[in-house]
Design brief:
By secondary structure, the chain is α/β, with parallel strands linked by helices. The chain is 26% helix and 26% strand. Strands 9, 10, 11, 12, 13, 14 and 27 form a 7-stranded mixed β-sheet that branches. The protein binds flavin-adenine dinucleotide (FAD) and FE2/S2 (inorganic) cluster (FES). Flavin-adenine dinucleotide binds next to helix 2, strand 12, helix 4, helix 5 and helix 8.
Amino acid sequence: MRIREHPILTYEKGREVEFEFDGKSISGHEGETIAAALHAAGVRVLRKSIRHARPRGFFCAIGRCSSCLMTVDGVPNVMTCVTPLREGMRVETQIGKGEIAEAGAAVPGWDTADAEPADTPADLGSVPLAIVGAGPAGLSAAIYAGRLGIESIVIDENDVPGGQLIKQTHMFFGSLDHYARVRGIDIGTELCRELESCPARLLTGTTALGLYGDGTPAKTLSLLRKGRHHRLRADAVVLATGASENVLAFDNCDLPGVYGAGAVQTLMNVDGVAPGDSVLMVGAGNIGLIVSYQLVQAGVRVAAVIDALPEVGGYHVHAAKIRRLGIPILTSHTILRADGADRVESATIARVDEDWKPVAGTEETLHVDTICLAVGLTPNCELASMAGCEEAYVPELGGRVVRHGADLETTLPGVFIAGDASGIEEASTAMLEGRLAGVAAAARLVPGLDPDRVAKLREQAVAGLRDLRAGPFGRAARVGKEKMRELVGSREGAESGPQA
Ligand SMILES: Cc1cc2nc3c(=O)[nH]c(=O)nc-3n(C[C@H](O)[C@H](O)[C@H](O)COP(=O)(O)OP(=O)(O)OC[C@H]3O[C@@H](n4cnc5c(N)ncnc54)[C@H](O)[C@@H]3O)c2cc1C
Ligand code: FES
């Protein structure tokens, strides 16, 4: 199941090590995730669910869904999709909640030689600008704030910066200013290179657990870094925390082998492990089409791409590439069920009518071992919610989103939101929103700061966003952002009304 040859990627692996899985010895590569090593060894069932002991595999592969919890070295509920493999680890299928760990047991992945020294201060002091998320939005925010002389710390839970870009092997569209004709993986590297010339510090392997908006003007972030808790105060914060993948309800949708598209991309393009032999892709938007193409590049058969919409949602150029490979794209189709004893063995699909109801007699069973869901993303708003930022429901932006003004400032002064976290779009708009948030945060931190330069950088980012959102493919974001402007306008009107 390991990908031996790839037209674009070469996989750098740690040394081969032995570890124990349910009493059996298995080999994997040091540093890859436990879930990836198990997948490469053909293991799909990682745990049994709490109530009905149903088999569960992983789903998101980015530490968001808890589908991959296993007991590791006696410690239950370890997220194996983000925990690196070490030699001699004892990994067990977790049944239900798992047994309580022995007092003092070290948390796997945090007890290693690279753990923080015990005397690392808990209080990391204060910084003018803290940015959570080192994806295209967060890195761009730090670069643009830095260009205006503002010092920042960029925090990301992953060891490698770049957010979702680290697994995107395809070339981007748009203008040269948005890295057109550059592969996603290289854009992340390029942004990190630019960051090096800025007054910015990158804190990877660090999760922001909480944001407290209580101080004026300072905010406090609580951080977890290699098993230790830290506190960081900031005068302004940019939240660029990205998004999580949506699930879809159908019979047996929890069977191991039903994976999010991002998880499949991580497994193939980061870990070098094929998700299966034969895949049904659900969703013909850009993500579904791009990941289908990448599956073929990795030597995996794609049986079909289906979508309930009557038309393909993604760019026609991506759809044409899929069709040229002989893969059918079945619009007005949905998935009815997955079948298999403890892993996907087949999927049953059917045509839907104009009310999206399955049409009896059109059912077809496909013999696939993987069902990949590319059915949209939901913004990660938890930190903003915790700090007390107001939210709104805007379906065009991905559902529940944080209210923000034209400069991406939330209802909590000094807290900005950018990229997928502010509403689902794509990486080019995430970069531009990051630039805008970085410039706006700088202007808030230093009133009167170089007004001509601030105005110019702001206008460039706004114009870029306007261009990218023009046309049919930017319609949802355009409508969503307009709704957001109306919501914020009506709130400001309501607030000023009684006072006037
Ligand atoms: C499968 C898939 C395929 C895609 N294909 C394309 C494509 O072809 N073209 C395109 O333009 N876009 C594509 N996208 C979308 C694009 O990747 C995103 O729009 C873009 O990466 C959003 O950038 P961002 O910076 O907002 O978030 P992200 O890139 O998601 O970065 C957010 C970062 O924040 C970190 N983070 C989140 N919460 C915390 C926390 N509490 N503490 C610390 N760190 C945290 C995350 O780990 C992550 O590294 C794809 C997305 C997916 C999932
Ligand atoms: S948390 Fe590991 S698969 Fe989602």
